[in-house]
Design goal:
The chain is α/β, with parallel strands linked by helices and about 280 residues long. It has a single domain, classed as Alpha/Beta hydrolase fold, catalytic domain (Rossmann fold). The protein is about 30% helix and about 20% strand. It contains eight helices and eight strands, in the order αβββαβαβαβααβαβα. An eight-stranded mixed beta sheet has the order 1-2-4-3-5-6-7-8, sandwiched between helices. Strand 5, helix 4 and strand 6 form a beta-alpha-beta unit. Helix 1 packs parallel to helix 8 and helix 3 packs across helix 4. The longest helix has 16 residues. The termini are far apart.
C-alpha cells in the first residue's frame, strides 16, 4: 500500500517539479490509413523554432490516445516533447474517433503506426532522419509491425522502444486468461496470431531496439520470459544495436538487472532511454 501511494503521488509530484527544457503545445490532426480509414491523432511539440526528432506512441490493450493523458500511463506526450521532440499519439482504428475495425495490434493497427510516422515525417518542424516508435505494453505489436512495414518500404525508423510488451500469443493473452485480443480466435490459429506477435517482426525492423522491463511486470507480475524472448530474438537479428534496460548494447546477461516496478520508476526509465535516443545514443 505504501509503495502504491508513493508511486501514485510521486509521479504526479515529479511532473509538477520537473523543469521542462521546452514548453509544449498540442494540435489535433487527421490522416488516413492505407485502407482509407480516417485516423484521429494529437501532435505535441515544443514551442520553439527548430527541426525536431519525431516519436510515435503506440497504445496497448484497448486504449486510444486518451490513455496517454491519464494517470495510468507511465509516460505522457508532453514528457517527451519537452525534451525536444514532436510526439504523435493516435486512436488506432476502431477506437476513439478513428474509423475502421478493431484489430488488437494486427496488420491494420500496424499500418496505423506506420502511417502515423509517415505523417510526422512530412511536418516542416520534423527531422525525418530522426524518428522512433514507442510501444507501451500491448502496443509493441503495433510498433514492431509498423517498424517492419516502414523498413520493407525503404523508410526504416532509427529505433523502437519497448516498455514491457507481450511478445507472443501466450503472453498477449496471459496464458489464455485475457481473451479480448483473441477476438474469438483459438490459440493455435497462426494466421491470426503470427502478425500480432512482436517476435515475428524483430528480424525485419532494420533499426535499434531497446527493451525496458521491471520485475515484477506491470501486467503479469511473474512474467519475465517475454523480455528474455525479445532479447534473444534481437541478438539473432541483424540489428544496428539492441539494449535491455541499462545493460551495455548487445548484452543480455543470464541474470539481468531488472528495473524497479511502479509508474514512477517506469516514467524515469522511459525518459532516460528517450533522452539517450534523442541524443543519438
Amino acid at each position: 500500500m505504501i509503495r502504491r501511494l508513493i508511486n501514485r503521488y510521486g509521479l504526479r509530484m515529479a511532473r509538477e517539479l520537473r523543469s521542462e527544457v521546452h514548453e509544449t503545445k498540442n494540435s489535433e490532426v487527421r490522416f488516413h490509413s492505407s485502407s482509407g480509414y480516417r485516423i484521429a491523432a494529437t501532435c505535441t511539440r515544443p514551442i520553439a523554432e527548430g527541426r525536431w526528432p519525431a516519436v510515435v506512441l503506440c497504445p496497448g490493450a484497448d486504449h486510444d490516445r486518451r490513455y496517454f493523458q491519464s494517470r495510468s500511463s507511465p509516460i505522457h506526450p508532453a514528457d517527451i516533447a519537452s525534451l525536444g521532440a514532436v510526439v504523435l499519439t493516435y486512436d488506432p482504428s476502431g477506437r476513439g474517433e478513428s474509423w475502421g475495425p478493431e484489430d488488437f495490434g494486427g496488420p491494420e493497427h500496424q499500418d496505423n503506426a506506420a502511417q502515423s510516422l509517415r505523417f510526422l515525417r512530412e511536418q516542416s518542424d520534423v527531422d525525418p532522419g530522426q524518428t522512433g516508435l514507442i510501444g507501451i505494453s500491448l502496443g509493441i505489436a503495433s510498433a514492431m509491425g509498423g517498424a517492419r512495414l516502414l523498413a520493407e518500404a525503404g523508410e526504416a525508423v532509427q529505433w523502437v522502444l519497448d516498455w514491457e510488451g507481450p511478445c507472443d500469443q501466450r503472453t498477449i493473452t496471459a496464458n489464455q486468461t485475457m481473451n479480448a485480443p483473441a477476438m474469438g480466435h483459438k490459440a493455435n490459429d497462426r494466421t491470426y496470431w503470427a502478425p500480432r506477435e512482436a517476435l515475428s517482426h524483430m528480424a525485419h525492423i532494420q533499426c535499434g531496439y531497446h527493451r525496458l522491463q521491471a520485475h515484477p511486470d506491470h501486467a503479469q507480475p511473474d512474467e519475465l520470459g517475454h523480455a528474455l524472448a525479445m532479447m534473444d530474438a534481437a541478438a539473432r537479428a541483424d540489428l544496428p544495436w539492441f539494449t535491455l534496460n541499462h545493460e551495455k548494447d548487445g548484452v543480455c546477461p543470464a541474470n539481468p538487472r531488472w528495473l524497479a516496478p511502479g509508474p514512477l520508476a517506469a516514467n524515469r526509465a522511459i525518459l532516460t532511454a528517450i533522452r539517450s535516443l534523442l541524443n543519438h545514443r
